[in-house]
Amino acid sequence: MAATLKDIATEVGVSLATVSRVLNKDQSLSVSDDTRQRIFDVADRLQYSKSKRHTTAVTRKKLAIVQWYSESKEQDDLYYMSIRMGIEQRGQQHQFEVTRVFQNNMHKLDTDIDAIIAIGKFSPKQVFSMAKITDNLVFVDDDQFDAGFDSVVTDFRLATEKVVDYFWNRDIQDIGFIDGTEMTTDHELEVVDRRLLGYRAAMERRHAFNPKLVFKGDYTSESGFKMMQKALKTLGDKLPHAFFIANDPMAAGALKALQSADIKVPDRVKLFSFNNTTLATFVYPELSAVNVDTELMGATAVDLIVSRLAGRTTAQRVELGTSLVERDSTK
């Protein structure tokens, strides 16, 4: 039986796409000279057809985006939509054939996928199922580096420290926090919000952490509204003078609750949100927010895939910084 590209890829330990591009003399491929020569050596030893080597067309690499949200929920969370758009834009630059799968529906993926970028939060079981499909696997907004996988994440610790400092420098030391609880789609793992961990650490360093000022919703606008209503009811006159809220939809809901209770923002309560999607500017007053470069997160994930396809085997973790955008909700 004649040798195939897959035979060569298996023996050299690189992807099928890498073998195809090397044998077709694709000089734009970023691969070491040693790997390139090994591919040719193995091809010759296995007597891979030279005529086939020169006539086989270079096919577009297939990149799957696995999204933990449903397509309808993504419409309500511009954060993950923006990450996906960043992936698709950079993927187009690299001429990937991109397919999307929502709610981790792996059975909808083709079996010949070259790479996967997973957006969201995933259980070990879900990670394992993706790793069985391809070694070229990158996680965005989910730190799977300890498990040996490429990861693109946000520096939540420093971002939270910046917000606490922002209020502290304005003599506001009673800072409430509203975040959410989520489960992976297979209900195997409860997701811990790293913003809460950062907030707690920052407040404890200042000997100011009060668990009664922490309220937990589910990242929706409705839950932000309900959690602020709960804060108003349980805290009364002891309501904090500032709240840090884990995403823009919840912050918009919290703002609505304060306005319904005739509590002035920012005069009585200042609000600082996280993510800085367009929603932050669609409410009144506009929300101060931690700006996360979501499109860069997506583009960085694609860059990691490109280097994986070029033969890189060592896992990488890319942590992107943030910046504070001050608007009327805190001024």
Q: Which helices and strands, and how do they pair?
A:
Layout (H helix, E strand, L loop, with lengths): L4 H8 L3 H8 L9 H13 L4 H6 L6 E6 L3 H6 L1 H16 L3 E6 L12 E5 L4 H10 L3 E4 L9 E5 L1 H13 L6 E6 L1 E2 L6 E2 L2 H12 L8 E4 L3 H15 L6 E4 L2 H13 L9 E6 L12 E4 L2 H16 L7 E4 L2 E3 L6
Helix pairs in contact: 1-2, 1-3, 6-12, 8-9, 10-11
CATH fold topology of the largest domain: Rossmann fold
Provide the structure class: alpha/beta
* Largest sheet composition: 6 strands, parallel
Describe the global form. elongated
The CATH architecture of the largest domain:
3-Layer(aba) Sandwich
Termini separation (Å)?
74 Å
Averaged pLDDT, please?
A: 90
As a percent range, the share of helical residues equals 40-55%
Beta-strand percent range: 15-25%
CATH class of the largest domain: Alpha Beta
Radius of gyration: 24 Å
State the helix count.
Answer: 12
Count of all domains: 3
Spatial strand sequence of the major β-sheet: 2-1-3-4-5-13
Uncertain segments: 50-58
Count the beta strands: 14
Sketch the topology as an H/E string, one letter per element: HHHHEHHEEHEEHEEEHEHEHEEHEE
Provide the CATH superfamily of the largest domain.
Response regulator
What is the oligomer described by this structure? single chain
Keywords:
alpha/beta; 434 Repressor (Amino-terminal Domain); Rossmann fold; 6-stranded mixed sheet; transcription regulation
